[in-house]
Design goal:
This protein has about 110 residues and is mainly α. It is built from 6 helices and no strands. It has one domain. It is globular, with a radius of gyration of 13 Å.
Amino acid sequence: MTITNRQVSEHPFLRGLYADDYYPDHVLDLGKAILLRLCERIEAERPADLAALYLLTEVATEEFNALEAAFEEADSEIETVAREEIAEDFWFVATAYGFADADVEELIAARDW
């Protein structure tokens, strides 16, 4: 599916992490793919309210939880800087799709990172 939201399609997901050699690009590419799949699901399912959006972000957050192993295998981790960057991108996605009142902690409530 092609993302139709121009703001999202032009957004440089995880930009701050790509600029830091501590985070391997091949693992960041997997994280970026998670965020893009989230956008595709939002466009396909069109959540009617925050509760429905939070169900979609929960799935994406759990995918990031699973990605922690790939970070560790590459001698990296989802630590404070990465947590903030990922959370900001979740919030960006929510606002880009009209959920400006989304709570960033609720968007990533299922995180173990």
